[in-house]
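fwd from M.: "can u put these together and see what the complex looks like"

so here's what she sent:
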Amino acid sequence: MKKLRIAQVAPIWYPVPPKKYGGIERIVSYLTEGLVKRGHEVTLFASGDSKTSAKLISSSPHYLAGKKIPWSDTFWELENLASAFKKASNFDILHCHVGLRALFFEPFVKTPTLFTFHNPLVSESEKLPPALEILKLHKNQINACFISKSAKKLCPIKIPKSWVVYNGIDLDLFKFNPQPRDYFIWVGRVEPKKGIENAIRVAEITKIRLYLAGKIDPERMEYFEKNIKPHLSEKILYIGELPQKKLAKFYQGAIACLNPIEWPEPFGLVMAESQACGTPVIAFDFGSARELVKNGKTGFVVPFLNKRGERNIEGLIGVIKNIKKIKRINCFNWVKGNFSLEKMIKNYEKIYYEILGKY
Amino acid sequence: MKKLRIAQVAPIWYPVPPKKYGGIERIVSYLTEGLVKRGHEVTLFASGDSKTSAKLISSSPHYLAGKKIPWSDTFWELENLASAFKKASNFDILHCHVGLRALFFEPFVKTPTLFTFHNPLVSESEKLPPALEILKLHKNQINACFISKSAKKLCPIKIPKSWVVYNGIDLDLFKFNPQPRDYFIWVGRVEPKKGIENAIRVAEITKIRLYLAGKIDPERMEYFEKNIKPHLSEKILYIGELPQKKLAKFYQGAIACLNPIEWPEPFGLVMAESQACGTPVIAFDFGSARELVKNGKTGFVVPFLNKRGERNIEGLIGVIKNIKKIKRINCFNWVKGNFSLEKMIKNYEKIYYEILGKY
């Protein structure tokens, strides 16, 4: 197959790869490096403090979160997008990872574009928000990729040319460990929808040792102080945000990872990373949980509500008792077979060729 | 001169023209109709509920404020912009009235573009906000128009190709009235920076009759209830938001218009409308006030701070005593000579030809 000239357009909120937090930037980094290794000529549009073996083009010298620019200010994001699309004729394909604002630039260029929607595209009411109204206007012109079947299904706009590619996990980093230590974990950004309070509730009732790891955004500090801190104890510890290597060790030592989320997460990276290390996952049945956890084999997917219509804490407790029945090697093999970096990179490559075949 | 194919790109927050509130949409409407009358082939990009004798193209069937879309949601605005720029090759010139996001699309088209910056471009700190950083990146490529010398001067980015065109007032609507009734007025959107509290303070001390007119945004209701309502009385009345015809009558009957603003308004439409009706203006010396009011001839421009560094209420009171010295006909002539619709339309037309001569 002919090697391609590929543009990867990353978000610029964090560097590519990010130092700690920055899930999309990390995936773009793995994809970019993987495509370079496979012989493609790759150009990465990302913040100036990114590191890559591809050619780097940066509108913004620094990543936006580091400059304390609020999420709602999209000026730099638009400049990054515009600069990539301005150079479109240099590429065989553009691959955009920055959400729906890229739709506005796509009609100006002849180069085919693939959009991966990393963030959920859902509408809570029948009335669509403007972003989805715009997606509706553009749906027949675009090539779209979702990061789970669930994310694709939940999107209220059906896009004719669309695919699903799961995120990949770095198995050299998240290595299998057959023998855990004595603790359970919860990992995520500290916010209600990530289910941190459900995990704590379970630990308080069952007296298991629970370690909590993840970023606290400044606007969540009050939530942490009020809802989380009072529950911390000798057995329930908050250990902060961990860099990748420490996070891997953290997963490896855990008996299981509690992921009792309360939202349809498009792809639960935490679930995949945990299982890569051999650590089974106990998740509430939301979003991609059923795709990421093989229920009864690599962990448990528990219905969110019990018969009384309340949060199903007893469901979580019930499966914790059976956690020893899950073979850790099954978790690893499951990730290796379905969520490896190699698989993700090859899947995207295949889609690029498929799209180009059509043009 | 050859007649031009002109695209006018309006904001879509209100229809063009707006029914009540919507200063930019109103100016775009006057400009569009004026250019059509002068024989140009004009296309207006605006919300679907706009009315125009030009060709109307609408991405959004309805104006956004009517759909309760928050100001921060820029998806429809971007779609409106993208749709105009997509058709750029059909026009000799594009004239954008929607602020800085248009900068992202300009590099994709060959058609020259003029940007009128209706909103203030100012930075309160030395560190530029992202929008102005982006303007800095684009400054040498663009044609920019400010709506007052003050607005141009306050913009921290110096744009080589830039002009000033004052807004125009419809003198058929805001007609001269030689003989006022017995009241003073304040007109504006109800918010602190528009100086409504300063006007009330003056009225309370001098016992003048003061009528307040203007829109209260939902998020300002609390401000109104707390800071304005307790001061209302038999002599100080709030009469709501007035449609254009009633507003003209309101100006015509006033002894003077108090405009003790506390921000550098790029172009104080209220000041121009009031003077068109023959009603002198008493303003604090901010932004365009010195350009719009001929101090001592058509009203008074009062320093914002007194010698003690406080709001100069006594300065306002001092000139109120002299208000009878202002000849109402001077106010009208001043507006007719400098801020007529005809003048605005001809000035823009002149800039279009100037820009096209350069390309």
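replying to her w this: DSSP finds twelve helices and 13 strands in chain B.
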